[in-house]
Amino acid sequence: MADVRDMYMAHAMFRREFSLLPELILDVPEGDGARAEVVGAHAELLCSILHLHHEGEDVYAWPKLLERGGAAAEAIVPTMEAQHHAIDECVTMIRKILPAWRSTGRRGAELAEVCDRLRVVLIEHMALEEREILPLAEKLMTAAEWSQLGEHGMKDMPKSKLPLGFGMVMYEGDPEVLKAVLADAPLVARLTMPIVAPRLYAKHAKRVYGTPTPPRIGRG
């Protein structure tokens, strides 16, 4: 059956990056387009990863849980769907404001406020998912079905961004879970990803946060 430990690992990454994002935006000096481009590119990457993550749940998880989970699934899946909609609305607003801010460094307070709104609804959503959905998925979904969620994100993410995305997850990831996630990957990925991905994230974090070791937040 499904090994859902990878979801806790992904959630830790989202909690960290989206919790740090509002202050990161506010720290950009007004009108500093160069710095805004660095932080803005980071924000866009996070939004893309989050969108693919939730799209995978919408396509592969919710229908199977509703089909097999009876009253327990019917009581929680509609809430998950509604929270995804609220999150999508925030992401859409961020992406509407982001291009102008990335080029000019202006309207940062407005962008940070929307990012903070996203942070609140996202953290609430992940906590509820961990409490109600993951126990259902462990009982009702096979390992192969669960793996479709991650495969969906990897399939649609630009290949050049995959190692960095994996490095973001590895930063607070359980080594045993990371090993399990890579178990079915091609040999070259199993050998290189544990080395390359953390280095890419350290370099990215240094550029974005000024340090290769931003604060760890972990599970909620």
List the helices and strands and how they pair.
Blueprint (H helix, E strand, L loop, with lengths): L4 H22 L6 H36 L1 H35 L3 H33 L2 H14 L5 H9 L4 H7 L5 H23 L11
Describe the structure.
This protein has 220 residues and is mainly α. It has a single domain (5-209), classed as Four Helix Bundle (Hemerythrin (Met), subunit A) (Up-down Bundle), CATH 1.20.120. 81% of the residues lie in helices and 0% in strands. It has eight helices and no strands. It has helices at 5-26, 33-68, 70-104, 108-140, 143-156, 162-170, 175-181, 187-209. α1 (5-26) runs antiparallel to α2, α3 (70-104) packs antiparallel against α4 (108-140) and α6 (162-170) crosses α8 (187-209). The two termini are 24 Å apart.
Short description:
The protein has 220 residues and is an all-alpha fold.
- Whole-number count of domains: 1
Q: Just name the CATH architecture.
A: Up-down Bundle
Find the structural class using helix and strand composition: mainly alpha
Shape: globular
Order of helices and strands: HHHHHHHH
Weakly predicted, low-confidence segments: none
Straight-line distance between termini: 24 Å
Radius of gyration from CA coordinates: 18 Å
CATH class: Mainly Alpha
Describe the largest sheet.
none
Estimated share of beta-strand residues: under 5%
Tally the helices: what do you get?
8
Mean pLDDT: 95
Number of distinct beta strands: 0
CATH topology call? Four Helix Bundle (Hemerythrin (Met), subunit A)
Residues in helices, as a percent range:
over 70%
